[in-house]
Design brief:
The structure is a homodimer of 435-residue chains. Chain A is of the alpha/beta class. Chain A folds into three domains: 146 residues, Rossmann fold (3-Layer(aba) Sandwich); 154 residues, Dihydrodipicolinate Reductase, domain 2 (2-Layer Sandwich), CATH 3.30.360.10; 87 residues, 2-Layer Sandwich (Alpha-Beta Plaits). In chain A, 34% of the residues lie in helices and 26% in strands. In chain A, strands 7, 8, 9, 10, 11, 12, 13, 14, 15 and 16 form a ten-stranded mixed β-sheet that branches. A six-stranded parallel β-sheet of chain A has the order 3-2-1-4-5-6, sandwiched between helices. In chain A, helix 1 packs across helix 12, helix 4 runs parallel beside helix 5 and helix 7 packs across helix 8. The longest helix of chain A is centred in the first third of the chain and has 18 residues. The radius of gyration of chain A is 24 Å and the shape is elongated. Chain A starts with a strand and ends in an 11-residue tail after the last strand. Strand 12 of chain A pairs antiparallel with strand 12 of chain B, so a sheet runs across the interface.
Chain lengths: 435, 435
């Protein structure tokens, strides 16, 4: 059993780092009662010693020299809250190889360099925990790894990016995309450069991490097919509304015979589905597995104190499992192939704008049929001398839908690029439709 | 570090026990990868060795003699899945005092004898884990104790009984209470004697356990004020519907200045609230705390394999934290007083049926005002020469509402006992109302 006093270090002392230090101070008694240990920040790596900070560290804690952390044998574990790929990766690799457990909140690093990082942890015989890298304080990694140990989770559906969920819920209330994005920036939900969020790259990294843990096979950012919300228009949002659905940016990880598929894209979610009620900047993850049917976790997916709360939970869990062999290994123990990109099946909603001329519906229907896309519901509405076709299809492959849409968009009658959204519903497709 | 082979025993080998044995068999490799250990059921206590079972135990595993488990030093931990208060309590006490870690799924035992059980665990220097006692596979205990260690959770809202939630969602679809209950029995969601579920006693035991863990102070079944669904009528359900709310049996644990309050009662839940979308036999628990705002966990709250999944997660967590001091103590470290029964505040919906005579509204309004109950919305509807008053109040104490209602029910114009339901909404009360 480790001694009561546990000196720890931080890489980074921004909003999250300062909150970690503050929580460890304020909750030292709680933590000692739960774990038998008092965690104390003795070093924090920063770039600028003189910067003003939320919760100032005690004198002598801040340092600009990584060696003061790496070479101090007294430090029991290190939490990385500085972000970025380099030099962060180098620091973490050196700590792990040197036998120092690490907690990280760095999703891009994990999703891109996970294999190397876990190999270093194995080499050093220590844990690398990463709860805060996915959905901040929502403890989905702990639940997957520790609570669902006998449940083969084969499907994950997640709203794992708060910025885009905020934008989409604002659009539901009537805003155009650009307005909603500007509003998200004002509210602090979007960064000045929102690319990583609105492109889906942030959600893709999180889904890669979740799929890796759930499926036991490495899924990197490169293995995730992702698309963001930039092309969502108010026409899509209002069509969804008329069908009693909502547009959400949904991450979907699926394990089927023959491989896995992990993707992020806008989807139409039935109002009766638990993910449809996730509003504003909240996140939710639904885990489907053998023994549990499904478990959904919902909460704030970002924020400094929420992230700090998850970092501390990981620190406490490392101290609480030290020397037992528990989770001292990579979650990956098998090699599953990626399903070829177009092969996953889903029901779809298609929105197709065409000139209102005789024969055009036949030509569109012919293109759908040619690719095996079976129409469950079709509604045609008139707009500006043109027609918009709203189609809900039975299950079809992503590949077939993509090809059919490209062909339809190339028809001379096509007015704009046709859009396709997977439909997520727990009801039968035939129960969905135009109000 | 414990050896790879970990012999374990079960008290009980019914549906849950057999599922635990089966999962440990089928997932032995998964568990060894995650923990470094292989768990193996070597003994299971039963009453009848000859009974046919789902997943038969290996020869020699079943026994009718508790001493074969208690006296076998090879057995590393014991999972209690036999239920009941005695002799179960006696068995667990003896195991814990003898230094044997125990996992239990027994909510009534924990909610009634928790203090003694945890004292015995402390005496024996071992863990007592109880995830499966609350909401089966939904890992709310693990999340509270391990993930939210620096979040002072001060409020829990839960739908923690699947039977009553099934009944209420069936009533929403038009069934009367008796029909819905009969249907729940047919579907296997209600027992032949459904008293423990429909009276709220089952939910009350779960809320006592959750409150104990969240608040760090012992809350027993006796400390929970509970009321079931037996008096819910279709008039209540349809009034809720007209206000875009649903009737749910809600457990509510609150920590305020001056004490805690834990109660279970039917409540009106705003459709926009995450708990409103919990349908059928599903459960959900919303945890509100300092660092997390709120986290909601939703899933199946009962079932043999779901319960077995939680039991195994606890077994694995005990093995994975052995000898570290982690959670080797009772969650209770302080003594918080119970708030006097009537003092908790909430907005309410009141349904009052009266003869339609001049002056009656004034008399009802006068009784409300006399007890400081401020009306936010009032709608009067005519029924059979009488009138039903639908009132949404601003926050008032439970005590004031109870007294006012008793006085109103005693008015000569009163047609039936008036009903009051707390209203649960994240919107302002003034946004709620009659459609």
């Amino acid at each position: 059993m480790a001694p009561v006093d546990v000196p720890v270090a931080l890489l980074g002392y921004g909003t999250v780092g300062a909150a970690v230090n503050r929580f460890l101070h304020e909750n030292a008694d709680n933590i000692e009662r739960a774990t038998g240990h008092r965690l104390r920040v003795v070093r924090a790596l920063v770039r600028d010693l003189k910067k003003q900070r939320d919760f100032p560290a005690a004198p002598g804690v801040l340092t600009t020299d990584f060696a003061e952390i790496a070479d101090d044998p007294e430090i029991s574990l290190v939490a990385e809250v500085m972000g970025g790929l380099e030099p962060t990766n180098d620091y973490i690799m050196r700590l792990l190889r040197g036998g120092r457990p690490v907690v990280t909140a760095n999703k891009q690093l994990l999703a891109q360099q996970g294999a190397e990082l876990f190999a270093a942890a194995q080499e050093g015989g220590v844990q690398l925990r990463f709860e805060a890298s996915v959905c901040a304080a929502i403890p989905v990694i702990k639940v997957l790894r520790e609570a669902l140990v006998v449940t083969n989770v084969h499907r994950i559906l997640g709203i794992v990016n708060g910025t885009t969920n905020y934008i989409l819920t604002q659009m539901e209330l009537g805003a155009e995309y650009e307005e909603a994005l500007a509003d998200a920036k004002r509210q602090g939900y979007a960064e000045m450069d929102p690319t990583e969020d609105v492109s889906g790259a942030d959600a893709a990294a999180k889904m890669a991490i979740l799929a890796t843990v759930a499926f036991g096979s490495r899924v990197t950012l490169d293995d995730v097919n992702f698309e963001g919300v930039e092309r969502i228009t108010s026409a899509h949002v209002s069509a969804a509304k008329q069908m009693d659905m909502v547009v959400r940016l949904v991450g979907r990880a699926t394990l089927v015979e023959g491989g896995y598929d992990v993707r992020v894209s806008p989807a139409l979610v039935d109002r009766a589905h638990p993910l449809a009620s996730v509003e504003g900047a909240f996140n939710a993850v639904m885990l489907q597995g053998d023994a549990i049917r499904e478990i959904t976790l919902e909460g704030p997916g970002a924020g400094g104190i929420e992230t700090a709360s998850a970092v501390i939970a990981d620190m406490v869990s490392i101290i609480g499992t030290k020397g037992t062999g528990f989770l001292h290994n990579d979650a990956c123990w098998r090699k599953i192939d990626r399903l070829p990109a177009g092969e996953l099946r889903s029901p779809f909603y298609l929105q197709i704008s065409v000139d209102d001329r005789p024969g055009v519906l036949a030509r569109v229907a012919e293109r759908l049929a040619a690719h095996g896309i079976s129409v469950a519901r079709l509604v045609q509405s008139q707009i500006d001398g043109g027609a918009t076709l709203h189609v809900i299809s039975h299950e079809a492959t992503y590949g077939a839908v993509e090809t059919a849409l490209a062909e339809i968009s190339a028809l001379p009658e096509s007015r704009e690029i046709a859009a396709a959204f997977p439909v997520i519903s727990q009801r039968g497709i035939s129960e969905l439709g135009w109000a």
